[in-house]
Amino acid sequence: MARTLARTAARPALVIEARPRRKGALWPYLLVGPAVAGFACLLVYPLARSIVISFQHFRLGELIRGGADFAGLANYAEALGGPEFWAVVRRTFLWTAANVVVIMVIATAVALMLPRLGRRMRLAVMSGMVLTWATPVLAATTIFQWLFQSRLGVVNWLLVRLGFDSFRDYTWFADGGATFAILVALVVWQSVPFAVLTLYAGLTTIPGELYEAARIDGAGPWQVFGRVTFPILRPLFGLITSLEVIWVFTCFAQIWAISKGGPGGATATLPVYAFQIAQSLHRYDLGSAVSTLTVLMLLAVLVVHLRRMFREEGA
How far lies 157's CA from each of 124, 154, 169, in Å? Predict the structure, then answer.
């Protein structure tokens, strides 16, 4: 025992030297700091505040005086217990499904077409896509309002010139189905460029030898897409679909600028419905509850979609 202690004491002690801290170690945090602060101020705080208000009795009086009583789940029970809320939920899912399906179909077709175009034509198409994508939302909305204007609109003028006299002075925005279709066309027109450019960038990473091997084996265009293109770009398709679901589900500016949810509530989705409750009825508590339920529904849809995508990718 004594010999062991003596040998241990005779061994040189390990000296752990602290590495000197690099001078530039704080730079990444300083560069990311403004973005994190902006994210917290513009998204995290409003979301947290909305959740708090949804559990309170918060109306115009509380907004002016300050302070609010705790209401528990009363606002959520009122929202979920009304038939109007569930009608808006169904309309929101229909709105999201219609837009996302049309966007992905058109974007996939255009992205597959781009490599087959000549250099100048491809550059022209991509430039048009970028300009469309860069157009401000309200500017694009104003253009669509003018296109479908009853007396001076280009669409009515063109349809009458083609022989459809029933569209003379036709008021598109007085019909719920027509207004819904116009809004779908507007959102698709604004969303397709991002999906096209992203998919085209992914297509350029696929080796040409894979397509040649598939054609040698006798694969047709649909088989090449199903067995070569789509499996390789499956994560990219999943990412674009998820982003489009988020953008379309939470779409507000286009709907509010054109129809304000009308006519007769035919275009009122969950974000518009929540804003109508808060603005028209001054029910900020109920509007916050609807907004929170909207976020929860969106998260549920995305979780299901992403889990299915990763499960298929792992298989």
Answer: 28, 5, 9
Does any domain span residue 286?
A: yes
Residue 101 near residue 109, CB atoms below 8 Å: no
**What CATH number is given to the structural domain containing 210?**
1.10.3720.10
Rounded to the nearest integer, the mean pLDDT of the chain is: 88
Residue 2: inside a domain = no
End-to-end CA distance of the chain: 60
Q: Which of 248, 124, 110 is nearest to 186 (CA)?
A: 248
Q: What is the pLDDT of residues 93-128, one digit of tens each?
A: 999 999 999 999 999 999 999 999 989 999 999 999
Q: Show Cβ contacts of residue 99 under 8 Å, excluding neighbours closer than 6 positions.
A: 184, 187, 188, 191, 244, 248, 251
Residue 95 lies in a domain: yes
Domain-located, residue 63: no
Stated pTM of the model: 0.84
pLDDT lower than 70: segments of the chain: 1-24, 312-315
